[in-house]
Specification:
Length: about 280
Amino acid sequence: MMIFSSSQGAALGCHSCPTRERDTVAKIGIIGTGSIGASLTRGLSRAGHVVTIANTRGPQSLAELAAESGATASALEDVGRDVDVDVLITSIPFRRMPELRTIVDRLPAGVPVADTSNYYPRRDGRIEEIERGEAEGVWLERQLGRPVVRAWNSLLQTTLADKGRPRGAADRLAVAVAGSDVVAKRLVMDLVDDTGFDPVDAGTAEDTWRLQAGAPAYCTELSAEQLRAALTLADRDAVTVRHSAVLSIIDTWEQGPTFFDDIVALYRAAAGLSAR
């Protein structure tokens, strides 16, 4: 399935942008409706796609988001069975991703899976393979039994919700997208564009450590040119050390009005990007 994009588009943080006209729309399933999943629901619906949402609490818990966005609420067990999708986006805590294996197994082989989650040991518990250096994307593919595209995971929730811009805007930020299936990655990159961000190819599943928490590409709000440079700056050993140090600092903060802006500034400084 091809997605045809015009030069104008609705963006998450640009509610006055015109709705995108397209020859083909994607049927998108989104599992998980926290801050990231809900923002994607709004943005992709506004871009003209047909969006179905599901979570573990059932369709009744999604009534408000469905009414606001125009998405359809579904029971989780119906995804891949009664609910037909062209692409599945998962937005749940990283450790719980293996629970989706039965749903993913029901999908046709050609349906891409895109994931927005990140591994946080304090929340998810230790995952030994990742602690030993396995890239998060590789671990996810083993758990789900098929290629997984990593996208939107390197954005803070406020960045995704408020800072999308039309294509060509001077202040448009970029999103790193990584995956081993070239066709699936291209489709997801088109969806990233539809959400108001320039998609940047960040390589394969083996390369997903370059957009994990602690990498220069993670939560640093960069343009496409800056993001490409940041991906090359990543040092695998430094990523883990930097992430642990940054989280230790954030844990001491109270969540005030500049909380998320301060997180971006901290990640940029930790990666040595503040002066670039």
